[in-house]
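Incident review: delayed structure delivery

Summary: a single-chain prediction request sat in the queue longer than the usual turnaround. Root cause was a stuck worker, restarted by the on-call engineer. No data loss occurred. The affected request and its eventual output are reproduced below so the record is complete for anyone auditing the incident later.

Affected input:
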Amino acid sequence: MSFTAIFTLFLILSPLVTSSSLSFTDNLPTAYEIIAGYNFPIGILPKGVTGYKLDKTTGEFSAFLNGSCSFSVEGSYQLYYKSTISGYISDNRLTSLSGVSVKVLFFWLNIVEVIRNGDELDLSVGIASASFPIDNFYECPQCGCGLNCNNVELATKLRSNPFVSSF
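Output delivered after worker restart:
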């Protein structure tokens, strides 16, 4: 085969190789799909996750935002997400979390564990935990305004129990 024929064949096939590579990359699951695969609702992460890392053998998981993110939940809690959220994920369980905090009264407490228990999520700050109905997490909150953006109340309104139960 001549060099010209090989070069022409390369030019003809290169768009096919490029498009198949792009479609493979485009088909990678999102961070939201990954956490849903572990039986968590997508709303435990705010909108705007730009990427993630997952080690399937250890469950080590990291999600990345463009920057830090905060918003109020039901007016009584303030949530804060750092630009990197990390921990270990397995079915119904997120452990050794870092990068997520909640303000209770005047104190910022790190959320260190999230466990799905049936139709509830138990969020732990170490010495105390609170249970929330899972339907509160079907929508992803938006940085700055949470679930009440543009002064439009979403159908899902967070119902909560205060952090009172302890380990």
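Verification: The helical segments are 3-26, 31-37.
Action items: add queue-age alerting; document worker restart procedure.
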